[in-house]
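batch job 7 of whatever, protein = L-ascorbate oxidase homolog
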Amino acid sequence: MRPCMCNLLSFLLLLVTFLSAFVHCEDPYRFLTWKVTYGDIYPLGVKQQGILINGQFPGPQIDAVTNDNLIINVYNYLREPFLISWNGLQHRRNSWQDGVEGTNCPILPGRNLTYAIQVKDQIGSYFYFPSLGMHKAAGAFGGIRIWSRPLIPVPFPPPAGDFTILAGDWFKLDHRRLRRVLENGHNLPFPDGLLINGRGWNGNTFTVDQGKTYRFRISNVGLTTSINFRIQGHSLKLVEVEGSHTLQNSYSSLDIHLGQSYSVLVTADQPVKDYYIVVSTRFTRRILTTTSILHYSYSRIGVSGPVPAGPTLDITSSVYQARTIRWNLTASGPRPNPQGSYHYGLIQPSRTIMLANSAPYINGKQRYAVNGVSYVAPDTPLKLADYFNIQGVFYVGSIPTSPNGGNNAYLQTSVMGANFHEFVEIVFQNWEDSVQSWHIDGYSFFVVGFGSGQWTQDSRVHYNLRDTVARCTVQVYPRSWTAIYMALDNVGMWNIRSENWARQYLGQQFYLRVYTPSKSWRDEYPVPKNALLCGRASGRRTRPF
């Protein structure tokens, strides 16, 4: 063989080896081990039994880059079953990792479960929380930051620092007593206070340098109330909402409803001193307030003057603000192409689903319902029953796709059916006098419209079909409606729920079964080999690899 031919063959072999390695390379893995324990906490100055992760309250922050694989081994050292869920993570093709009662068996005391989560095609600010019972009232929640990949442009310069704020209402009653209140047929009492990162009044300090800009990621991790966030003397430039880069409007304060997450840029452009960071309740007649400190480096002047007041009962200003939150059409999301290259407004929905919340009494006890159906959990997770074809656990269509128009609410394990690749319009109709907050697991959706009164087909005239924001949690104002568009591109069993934890616990939730007859892993992963089995799935076999 001639030398030139040998060189050519060597080059081709090297090229094939390189391309093979490139094709089979995996996204990075991050390994975490969490130990869930009880521990004494004093969030409102009163000793309480909290739920800690690795001894921390709130729990450890999760940092990841788009497409990273998170391997999180959770050990349950409590005396009760436990699960973690991931607010806003989409678990593409993999609702097995969602960590809610309808998809996963609980981690029993003394046992562990390893979650395998890929943050596929996601960026932004989210949080995790304990999903069983009223554990959320005891802690075990924490922040999630998903950073853009290095070569993907971000529509603002790198900030000098990045802070997470987990804010929300808090009760002095422990989670077991709160659960008993609900199970006895009553709503929760008014909360005792507000927390920022697990602490009360002036319990946290965030240090900044004059002239520099910082990113604050704020999530409402509370149980029952919307909040308003503001920083004394400083503007909040909104840049991201639950994975969507937004038009960079500036606000003096932001309403953040239950379960929602926002990112703002704050420039330290004021004289060197300390300033209040303020969180207060929204739409409550009794206003709860708490503060942290924005501390300028080298400041020797503490906070002073009255705590800046925020909006209270006014609905109109909140609706106006919500309508100004728009998609940044030219900014990249998790991929290099502009967000606006997805023209959601040009897609005709295949059908309309209307979801109406209500607060019925059933068997003499307070319950909450969707379309007249109050959810009750079965003895076997829905996802396992579906996979193993276990009869009698649930049936698809056990909740109607529109309100029944009557007052006869009933208890049911409610599952709504939908087909893979449908594009649907969902209208949340709220005839009650309180703000509702709705979350959909596994998805991001487009909030195309808000309106007062009864939604009708004529309401579509006022939809924003160009640049509304895509997010995973949306508010519905009193005696009003909110409409969303959603592409059902993620097969699985997905929880749709109220983010008011009392309402969720007492039935204002259901599951959407997004189905395909295909058995291809391209559409959905099979049951994990380490899946916990319980109820009527006990003794079954998971896959061998």
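notes: The first helix runs from residue 3 to 24.
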